[in-house]
């Protein structure tokens, strides 16, 4: 199977490395940065450059870029792709790119478009930080555009064979609503948390809970700002809901209402137990 | 060295197990629950029961209970402790127990009182979850009452010899201000986060950031409510500061102000890098 990857950062680079580690794939990659291209070849993340020649034979084109770059990045490759080639983006929000794919379908009806979001990441960016184990046990979200059930099944099994833990097929709308909470809100909370004045002087006073809470305070501001603004309707609602809940704890503290505070903590504790118990 | 432990839950049980694993300690324990006492003996966390007889010879008495139980728990043991015996509590807030120790000093001037807070924990409670590795590389905070510099140094080296990563000596006031942020606020945020409606339906949509952020949503509500209410002045301020910061992200989202959102994210990112770079 021949696969093209546009964008060889943390995700694209890790994807190439995963394919190369498993074997049986010819991987052609493209990145706008020449140094990234060189590194990708040296690190064995790709077999060669993705260009209008090598693109002709690929079975799947992965676009692992910021959503705003999707359209311009695929422009020159789509006309040369073969009948039935699958085009997927790896963007962290799915409404916009999926809508763009729908529009592209008019011009390229011989192609198969599927949105994708590998629910994996690290608090680092770039090919230097890419690893062939990034996707192990991760969820892969698919937002289908025009794939039929047989192609979808093939794609699902492809991702499972790469080590993904599960493949979920959903609508771009539901995806964006869910990740506003499970991913974007986590990053905002972590990033805001570390801004409390005392954070810069707490040496010796922190344990695991602080470490876990602030891990993703480190992030790529440009990328996350773009993803969050594109999903601002969902993310605003989730953030407002969290702030409202936090205020309840604050009120209980201010009123020295231990019974209320205990009740709030119990409720969260039970909710966590309930949610975890439903995990596979 | 003979050590007594009152309260054989997660912390007290783990402390006994640590001492027994390292060897060279005789450990006497007491817990109000008979089943916990039996478990502590079966699990090898203690050598025997701490009572008014065995307490006579101990060099150090550790009180690992809720702060509200400290006074009544030590009452019967203090009169029998030998000259120079060290009395420490392991409570998560230090102003109240340290003040109580100061008062006890009037009556028991032959004893040495030091407040202590091992900055370690798990999202579980009870001796069943205690482990002899809980304190490895953790910080131990000491809030001294009447120990002289030689005793303090001995106590510091004692904790380092148990595997603690560092020992910090500070005031009860500063301790309570710091842990309001590094520990208590983390637990509130995690506990509140999971209350967003969508949390109960996000299967397949979460990655490491969600897992880390919600880990300590699971907690002991009774204990944390007590610790938080005792520290409500500090904790309220930290929570208000976080909510104010979170609102800034919310405003940027609502105004679709990508530049401002990016700037907020950059600021948090740089702060995280700065703080982490100063770690030993």
Q: Can you put this structure into words, describing what you see?
A:
The structure is a homodimer of 280-residue chains. Chain A has 280 residues and is of the alpha/beta class. The first copy, chain A, has two domains: 2-170, 3-Layer(aba) Sandwich (Rossmann fold); 175-277, 6-phosphogluconate dehydrogenase C-terminal like domain (6-phosphogluconate dehydrogenase C-terminal fold, Orthogonal Bundle), CATH 1.10.3660.10. Helix content of chain A is 48%, strand content 13%. Chain A has ten helices and eight strands. Chain A has helices spanning 10-22, 34-42, 70-74, 95-107, 149-161, 172-193, 208-214, 221-230, 232-254, 258-277, and strands spanning 2-6, 26-30, 48-49, 60-63, 86-89, 112-118, 139-144, 166-169. Chain A has an eight-stranded mixed β-sheet, with helices on both faces. In chain A, strand 4, helix 3 (70-74) and strand 5 form a beta-alpha-beta unit. In chain A, helix 6 (172-193) crosses helix 9 and helix 9 runs antiparallel to helix 10 (258-277). The first copy, chain A, is elongated and about 70 Å long. Chain A starts with a strand and ends with a helix. The relative contact order of chain A is 0.10. Chains A and B meet through helix 6, helix 7, helix 8, helix 9 and helix 10 of A and helix 6, helix 7, helix 8, helix 9 and helix 10 of B.
Q: What is the element layout, followed by pairings?
A:
The structure is a homodimer of 280-residue chains.
Chain A: E1 2-6, H1 10-22, E2 26-30, H2 34-42, E3 48-49, E4 60-63, H3 70-74, E5 86-89, H4 95-107, E6 112-118, E7 139-144, H5 149-161, E8 166-169, H6 172-193, H7 208-214, H8 221-230, H9 232-254, H10 258-277
Parallel strand pairs in A: 1-2, 1-4, 2-3, 4-5, 5-6, 7-8
Antiparallel strand pairs in A: 6-7
Helix pairs in contact in A: 6-9, 9-10
């Amino acid at each position: 199977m021949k696969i093209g990857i546009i964008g060889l950062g943390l995700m694209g680079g890790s994807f190439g490395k995963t394919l190369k580690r498993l074997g049986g794939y010819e991987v052609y990659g493209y990145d706008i940065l020449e140094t990234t291209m060189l590194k990708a070849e040296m690190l064995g993340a790709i077999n060669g450059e993705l260009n209008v020649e090598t693109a002709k034979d690929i079975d799947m084109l992965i676009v692992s870029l910021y959503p705003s770059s999707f359209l311009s990045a695929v422009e020159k490759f789509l006309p040369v792709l073969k009948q039935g080639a699958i085009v997927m983006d790896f963007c962290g929000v799915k409404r916009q790119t999926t809508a763009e794919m729908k529009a592209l379908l008019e011009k390229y009806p011989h192609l198969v478009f599927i949105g994708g979001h590998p629910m994996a990441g690290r608090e680092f960016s770039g090919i230097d930080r890419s690893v062939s184990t990034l996707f192990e046990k991760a969820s892969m979200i698919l937002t289908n555009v025009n794939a039929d059930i047989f192609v979808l099944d093939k794609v699902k099994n492809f991702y499972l064979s790469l080590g993904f833990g599960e493949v979920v097929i959903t609508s771009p709308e539901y995806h964006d609503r869910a990740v506003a909470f499970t991913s974007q809100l986590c990053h905002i909370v972590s990033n805001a948390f570390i801004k409390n004045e005392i954070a810069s002087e707490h040496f010796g006073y922190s344990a695991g809970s602080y470490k876990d809470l602030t891990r993703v305070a480190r992030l790529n501001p440009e990328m996350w700002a773009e993803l969050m603004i594109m999903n601002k309707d969902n993310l605003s609602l989730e953030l407002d809901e969290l702030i409202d809940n936090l205020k309840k704890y604050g009120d209980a503290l201010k009123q020295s209402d231990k019974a209320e505070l205990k009740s709030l903590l119990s409720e969260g504790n039970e909710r966590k137990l309930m949610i975890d118990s439903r995990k596979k």
